[in-house]
Amino acid sequence: MGDGSLGRIAALVRQDCRLLVRDPAPLIIRTVMPLLIMSFMQPLFRAALRADDVRDANGAEQSVPGMAVMFLFFLVNVVGFAVFREHGWNTWDRLRVSPARPFELVTGRLVVPLVVALVQLTVFFGAGGTLFGLRVRGSYLALAVVGVPLAACVVMVGMALVALCRSIAQLSVIANLLALLFAGLGGALTPQSVLPDWVRPLAPGVPSYWAMRGFSTVILDGGGVGAVLLPAGVLCAFTAGFTVLTLVFFRTGHRKLSWS
Question: Distance of CA 225 to CAs 143, 146, 152, 232, Å?
Fold first, then answer.
């Protein structure tokens, strides 16, 4: 990748940063809302974990990673908006005829959401320890080993939906449904050990299951990096799969509808 390519990607990243700084309210709401829900859910999760023989659990062991995983997938909309707004502003055609190649257009739109996802995970777990008494028995490095591919998976889900959806309305509905579906099947809303019998065979088919499995291994079981290599590897595989979907279906010439 040459200096010109990096410069074009950097220009797109700077534009996204300026737009984010200009209107940070959506990001603030997406960060504060999970923290509020954690406080409401913690007593419920405390009872569920203690019933599952985690006798010293205070509930944060499930509420913090659960809400972090659930709300991280709502960032899928942010990735979509970054592309669809260009069509709404009628600036996408200008980008197409610019020297920027499709790879650069896609990469430039992924950087800021990826950074936002990583920052949000850091805030959620930091606040979990400070506000909710989250005790991490394992390695914080292991949390990062799970968190980084999870964040990458989220942004690639968003780009895959950009490639597949014709309108922002389609993307928004599908993204929100996926976030809720992933939360339910993956064990973000309830400990994986108490998932309904019919859900358990389906759970490994969603990335949130592996994220929660990895986080639980570190938080509850005291696992280190070696213990989370499988969940992290599966999350990388999901990321690769969504990347392939993007490469197959994304076309710069496809016209997108911003508001209808």
Answer: 8, 9, 18, 10
